[in-house]
Amino acid sequence: MRITPVAFAFVLAAPLVLAACGERPEGESADDFAARVNGGAAPAEEGVASEAKKQPDGPRDPSLPRVAADGRKALQQAATYTQPNADGSADSLAIRQDGTYTLVEDGRTTTGEWQWLPDGKRLRLEGLVRQPIVLVADGALYRMQNENVPFDDVTPDRAYRLAQ
User: Basic and acidic residues composition bias: which ranges (predicted)?
Assistant: First the structure.
């Protein structure tokens, strides 16, 4: 049996294609996204902070809190943000000044460290795979899958509001 050059190339390329399709639950980085959108070019010198200024300042749903103009000032680090569940329980997220967080989700508690992203509006919860980015709003926090989710793409199911 004779293998054509096209079939041979396909056989060689198939494992590489499959490997490239592997799961990246953390999402692509901001640099990867910028390179992909800009046709392979590096991100502009303006940086991530300038890109955040171009983002919408609030959710599409007007009943949800708007994105804070300065996340560092709006974040209540001595408070707990909560999200009610359908069963009457609540999930919670506490961000502390010592650089740690506590997330209670579906009855499980996760603790870890967090850090600000360069734009000063979002922070990353280290050690989380699902929704590791937190966007700071006025009186609320929005959990986001990765750094490339637009600021107006927030929904009530991802909103943690200040506990009253």
Answer: 51-60
